[in-house]
Structure formats: C-alpha cells, structure tokens
Amino acid sequence: MDIIAHGIDLVDCPRIAEMVERHGERFLNRVFTPAEQACARGRYNSIENYAGRFAAKEAILKLVGTGWRGKIAWTDIEVTNDPAGRPEVTLSGEVQRIARELGIERISISITHTANFAIASAVALARSHEGR
C-alpha cells in the first residue's frame, strides 16, 4: 500500500471541556457518534478521549483536503478502538464518498493526549500502483 496523504491536528482539551459544559448533549451528538460517546463515557479522562477523537476527525478532513464544509458531517468520521485499544476509522456519508474518489482504501491513525492537549495523525493508504 502507498501513503497518498497525511493530516495532523492538535486540540486544546480545555476547549473541548468548555464545549461540553456549554452545549452538553447537543455538542456531543453533533460531533460524536453513539459508539464514540460510549467509548468516552465513564472514563476518568473522558474530555481527553473526546479531544483525541476530535483531533482525529480534523486530521482526516485535512488528509482528504476538504476541511469541514458542504455536506460533510462530523459523524461521517467515526473513531473507535479495536479490542487491543488501537484506534480505527470508519467513514460514511460525504467523507466516505470523497475518500473513495481519492482512491483512499484505508486510514491509519494515531492519537495521544495529556490533560491539556490531544494530537492525532492520520495517514491515507491506497493500493500500490507497482506491478499493474
């Protein structure tokens, strides 16, 4: 597989905490899927968890080259964890359509956070053109 794009984003965790405090469920439902909310809910560091997923979504929008606009919904990008805890991406809606158009077959992400910051890096992968 070839790397065809990269995106990175840094999020201020207190900013996410402020959004959750100010807008509550409205913000959470607009930005995070039910699976993402379930993953963060009940954790001692739920704000950091939300901030990491928010950073991942921003990084993915950068790698597809769109930013958040048009028909794109935050929930078109879902960041969950496999049984080992590794983050995984599932695309739907407009973001999935754009990714397919770009030839993106898989997105690999990495997320890390502290109490103050969350950062995510996303790499778009496509089939190698060698041997075709």
From TrEMBL:
Residue ranges of domain 4'-phosphopantetheinyl transferase in the record: 7-101
EC number from the UniProt entry: 2.7.8.7
Predominant location category: cytoplasm
GO annotations of cellular component type: cytoplasm
GO biological process, one term: fatty acid biosynthetic process
Keywords: Cytoplasm, Fatty acid biosynthesis, Fatty acid metabolism, Lipid biosynthesis, Lipid metabolism, Magnesium, Metal-binding, Transferase
Enzyme class, spelled out: transferase
Function per UniProt: Transfers the 4'-phosphopantetheine moiety from coenzyme A to a Ser of acyl-carrier-protein.
Similarity-based family: Belongs to the P-Pant transferase superfamily. AcpS family.
NCBIfam families: acpS, pantethn_trn
Protein name (record): Holo-[acyl-carrier-protein] synthase
Native source organism of the sequence: Anaerobaca lacustris
